[in-house]
Amino acid sequence: MRSQYGDLSIQAIETQPNAALIVRLALPPTFNKNGVEHRIIELCEREQQILETQYRKDSAATDQEIEQYRRDSANLSTVVHLLANQDLTSDALRLEARASL
Asked: What angle do CA 13, 51, 26 make, to 5 degrees?
């Protein structure tokens, strides 16, 4: 904005209960205040779109990581279940035979 309109002076920044942000600028009387306001809104909307796009990319990566964790956990649960259901009798007999030697 400063490159286009020169040195803009911020008088105040306020937040509203509805999460709106109000920025009060000191502008020379020759400035088209509606034009400045319109340009600021365009810039804010563009920046918001950039941030939302980045958030969606980050969120998608997180969703993929969660899904991979779920698959890995399911695989690990299957392995534990198979090991728990193995025939432990033959292993116990081998241990007893070694102990008696």
From this structure: 25
3-class secondary-structure state, position 13: strand
* Tokens read off for 67: 């899904």
Tokens for 88, please give them.
């432990």
**Helical spans, DSSP H, in 1-101:** 2-5, 33-84, 88-100
pLDDT in tens, 21-54: 888 888 888 888 888 888 888 988 999 999 999 9
Residue 18: phi and psi, rounded to 5, are -90, 20
Provide mean pLDDT across the span 91-101: 59
Alpha-carbon gap, residue 60 to 58, rounded angstroms: 5
